[in-house]
Amino acid sequence: MATIDAQQAREFLTALGPDLQWRLIKADDQHLLKGQSGPWLENPRDPGRRAVDLPLDRLDDQYSWHVRPMPLSGPYPLTMLDDATHDTIDRMTAEGLPPTAAIETSADRFQVWHRWPWPMGRDHTARLLTHLQQHYATDKGANMPGHNGRLAGTRNWKRQPEKQIDRAGYAVHLVMTSPALTRAQATAWLGRFPVPQPAVHPVTIPAGVVGQFDFDDLRYQHQLAKTVPMLSGVWAQAYAQRHDASQADMTIAIRAVSLQLDDATVASILDPLVHQAGRKAHGRDYIPRTIAKARQWTDVQAPGIWGPRFDAARQFPWLAERSRAAER
User: Fold this and answer.
1) DSSP code for 204
2) Which of 124, 133, 177, 263 could form an S-S bond across to 15 if both were Cys, CB 3.0 to 4.6 Å?
3) Which residues, including other chains, have CB under 8 Å from residue 87's CB and lie 6 or more apart?
4) What count of other Cβ atoms lies within 10 Å of the Cβ of residue 325?
5) How far is CA 128 from CA 78, 99, 122, 145, 235, in A?
6) The whole model's pTM is what?
7) Helix (H/G/I), strand (E/B), else coil: 111
């Protein structure tokens, strides 16, 4: 079998940092059935390995090989922009953001990687990626933190007849590396081109006693203030475990309705997660249907009103204390 250029692959990965771990992904893009994409072979439980430990000298170049930076749940020191051009790279360099590594994946099309001087959380990385894509007019689909990229030294067998795409084994090769971005470089660029701040979605807390629940209880309000800002991180963890965005949405919906939030507030939490750039489009009823399913599964019919399947004492321990006090 023909093997990949392991030296080029290792140089590419090492340029992004010998401390990082990568997961290898094989795509059988050359053996297509009716023009459909071939199998995507990725082990979701693989925690990844450092570049020096990957079996790069044993990979068959008859397959398309990708790498995913690990861990998926962050923190993230890398960003990757897809479908850049020579002009894009020249502009980045002129603006003080030289690529840490750039590989050509097809004729005059590049994937550009940056190693940032500080690790970033998922939400910040997602906003930065969207900002970079808009600023440099690159592919909006590759904007999930921890997104995979093609491995230098391999071949691109992508074939989509309906789009007149046939890479025919184009050599994916490393075209440049630079030192990682310094704190001064990153700070200067972000000072010139700041990342837009996210919209704030206020949480609506019902007042008084509704059904079986006292919304004015300070313990509840403290729990809400602590838990709601963490939900986007919970989404990232659920997505990293299952690689299913819809299941991650449902995880958040279940948590939110269990916290006794109303439908409008749950929708405001889900909306920026569902409409992240790069996710497939959903119908207008997707979020309401997700919330309705979450209510059905939890048995929380409305804020403060729930059926016997909802374990309220587990969610709000002081309710169990109150029940015991009443029994005495």
Assistant:
1) P
2) 177
3) none
4) 8
5) 11, 15, 10, 10, 18
6) 0.67
7) strand
The CB-side HSE value for 260 (13 A sphere, CA atoms) comes to: 27
Nearest to 260 by CA among 220, 292, 309: 220
Q: Judge whether 64 and 135 are in contact, CB under 8 Å.
A: no
Alpha helices in the chain (DSSP H): 6-15, 86-94, 122-136, 183-192, 218-227, 231-242, 245-258, 263-274, 286-298, 312-315, 317-327
Contact 114, 100 (CB under 8 A): yes
pLDDT for 136-192, tens place per residue?
999 887 768 888 999 999 988 776 655 555 666 789 999 999 999 999 999 999 999
Q: Is 291:253 a contact under the CB 8 Å cutoff? A: yes
Q: Judge whether 167 and 107 are in contact, CB under 8 Å.
A: no
Instruction: Yes or no: say if 96 and 189 are a contact pair by the CB < 8 Å rule.
Output: yes
Residue 144 is given by DSSP the state S
For residues 142 and 262, give the distance between their C-alpha atoms in angstroms, rounded to a whole number: 33
